[in-house]
Input
Amino acid sequence: MKQSVTVSKTQELKLAATAKVLLSKFTIKTPKFELKTLVRKIIVPLVSILLFIGLWHMGAQSLYNIEADYKIQKALTDQGQEASDAMKACIASGDISCQPNTLPSPAQVWESFKTLIADHKVIRADKLAFKEKTAALNANRIAEGKDPITYTGRPSFVDQIVTSLKTVFAGFILAFLIAVPIGIVIGLSKTLRNAFNWLIQVFKPVSPVVWLLLVFMIVKTMTKDSNSDSAFIISFISVGLCAMWATLVNTAMGVSSVDKDYINVAKVLKLGPFQKVFKVILPSSLPLIFTGLRITLSVAWMVLIAIELLAQSPGLGSFVWEEFQNGANDSNSKIIVAMFIIGIIGFLLDRIMLMIQNMISFNKNATA
Amino acid sequence: MGYLELKEVYKTYGEGKNATEVLHNINLTIQEGEFVAIVGFTGSGKTTLVNLINGLLKPTSGEIRFKGKAVVDTSHERGVIFQNYSLLPWLSVGQNIAMAVKEAFPDEKREFIKNRVSQYVEMVNLLPAINKRPKELSGGMRQRVAVARALAMNPEMILMDEPLSALDALTRGNLQDEILKIWSKDKRTALLITNDVDEGIYMADRIIPLKPGPKATLGPEFKIDIERPRDKTELNDNPHYKKTRNAIIEYLMGIGEERKTTATAFYELPELAPKNFVA
Output
């Protein structure tokens, strides 16, 4: 009995020791939360967010008041005292038909966000029901060699986001595939650099809208007798063409400005041209290439909205435009919701790129 | 005929009016198995000389012959240890060396390359750091990697361009011994470029001063007849060491003085006196 107690005690000690080791390892890994860093990293941003929302709320309130006063005044001059009083009562009652149309308040935007999510849920349920209903029919159609019936209902807000992301990634990959190889070739040869320089300098500052029109002219003719989704093709090609310049310039610069020491190493080791490019020049210019790709992705996301709006391809851009044209009571707040979503997604995309950059690149000091 | 021969080598950078002649009539012969040091001031064209010999640069005129053949390009026969290590920062120590080994022995199997890499990493006592990046290493460790990389290619001649000048005195002493140890093992021909006379005397069979550029040229050679292995502490009491050291330093200082006096322009000062000067 006694022995077993001692055994268990030693086991206990062992356990305690391992626990201690584990604990020490764990505590080393977790950063120390000092009050100063807590304040700086969490409380200060939180306060600034609250301040921003407060200012926005106050601004929206005063704009609302201006608009309401104008409406009442207009009713008074146009239709007399009675109409003016009716208008006042109507506005105060919160009736949708007479609400002043102006900058929405944070609360309204939050409401719209919830509506959009609820709307998405409804549409998703609808889609699922449609799929179930047509499952048997579609199986038959496929067996007969016909195209299956697809859901053609209105896309939800989330669907629009997904479409936009698809477009932007297609554009980004296009930009990557064009800009990086050309950038490497241009960077390696001084002659080619001079030959291409005018082209880059002239086309880099061209506005997204003009690119869209150019792409439209070409793609419209090329997709004449195919039934592919030309709006998507046009928008992603335009996005790619607008956004690729940063990568092109950065890649060319990175490749042409490789440290002379590394080139000497490559020469002394007698690396072949292929090896020299892939083992020395590319790794050493990777930080600059990635900086270019990050700029490209953020530019792609930025121009995407404008291009979708003009190309009438589905996505966040057309969502914003349709809401603006729609002029419904909550249109303005839906536009603001879209604005925040666009901003947050842009921010996340940049973070992801930074993460990949830090993972791949030897230069660990890359920051925002 | 020497192992390495430089005959009336001239090197000029730039053209026309902007041309500066860096090296002027360089003649040098190194025998097989010899350890030669070239000592000179910074900026006297030492690196240019090394790059000419290893084939990175081409002489404006003159001839460089290695084993009787003209040097036209870089070659695995002449390993180089650069002044600033020149390790690829995105590769680990092992990968940096493996890259060189793969190039030097293209037909060998992976196993051979792996063994050779670890053999040379072990030689410079860096096995614990084999998976580290150059950034995580100290200057001395980095230079040891560079030494290992150059030697792992099994060159017939080692060219060292101020390999130790960026290191502190203690590390420097250690690495000097390590390089000597490696050199004496299979008596490769070695050319050391340095700005440290003591380092030259300690390591080399012959010291040749390089007169400072522009128009740098080699001075008279000094033979070091001190038996190997040399002992640093005993060296200080060796009369031959003292004599040679003083001779070299005197020679270099003499050139330095010469350069100073020739560089001084004479300015005529205007005769000026304060206006309201009351004596």
Q: What stands out?
A: Strands of chain B lie at 4-13, 20-30, 35-40, 61-66, 69-70, 78-81, 157-161, 189-194, 206-210, 222-223. Residues 1-30+40-77+165-174+191-279 of chain B form a domain with the Rossmann fold fold (CATH 3.40.50.300).
